[in-house]
Design a protein that fits this description.
single chain, 115 residues, mainly alpha, 0% strand, elongated
Length: 115
């Protein structure tokens, strides 16, 4: 399939397809779905999460923190999602100098002052 055929099917420009291929842009979830259907591969494959075109990430592939994040997302618990996301970040970036955890403290203070 050519870039122009794929672009037409996904309803984006051929230049946009080129930017996706070169890693200059990332497709939205809607476009990613269209691309995976058109190419008959999983979105996980297009995202580089799995090596086989039809493979998908399953709950067994996720860490306990990732599972906790997904459960919070299913519940719509944004606070728990943010807390868990920060823990996941810390897990994957243990040498990060500046931690984003001060955001939660500032937010609590602002809320308690009626802002």
């Amino acid at each position: 399939m050519s870039q122009s055929d794929l672009a037409r099917a996904a309803r984006v420009t051929q230049g946009q397809i080129l930017r996706y291929e070169n890693g200059q842009n990332s497709p939205s979830s809607v476009i990613l779905t269209k691309l995976s259907r058109e190419l008959d591969v999983s979105a996980d494959f297009l995202l580089g999460l799995v090596d086989e075109p039809q493979a998908r990430v399953t709950p067994a592939d996720l860490s306990p923190l990732e599972l906790r994040f997904m459960a919070a997302a299913d519940r719509g618990d944004i606070i728990e999602m943010m807390k868990t996301a920060m823990q996941i970040y810390d897990e994957y970036h243990p040498d990060a100098k500046e931690q984003p955890s001060s955001l939660g403290k500032a937010g609590k203070g602002a809320a308690s002052k009626g802002r």
